[in-house]
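Page 37, continued from 36.
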């Protein structure tokens, strides 16, 4: 298996989907299930980290109503 830090968001998410499908199949031994669960947890953390990084970049690139750059957060709009 690839180190998670080497994966893009898209790669990690696709692998996470495969892991979930395998776990849901119920055709694995307990040891295989535990190993896949650990891998899935690492992939989910990576995806969350990548999304947080993207959110921070977008927040820094926001524009104020007058057209000037302005710092804002997605969370402020919620």
């Amino acid at each position: 298996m690839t180190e998670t830090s080497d994966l893009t968001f898209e790669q990690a998410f696709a692998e996470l989907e495969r892991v979930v499908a395998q776990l849901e199949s119920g055709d694995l031994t307990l040891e295989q299930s535990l190993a896949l669960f650990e891998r899935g947890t690492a992939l989910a953390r990576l995806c969350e980290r990548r999304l947080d990084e993207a959110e921070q970049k977008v927040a820094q690139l926001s524009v104020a109503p007058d057209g000037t750059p302005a710092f804002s957060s997605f969370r402020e709009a919620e």
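The chain has a mean pLDDT of 86. Flag for discussion at group meeting. The CA atoms of residues 9 and 47 lie 6 Å apart.
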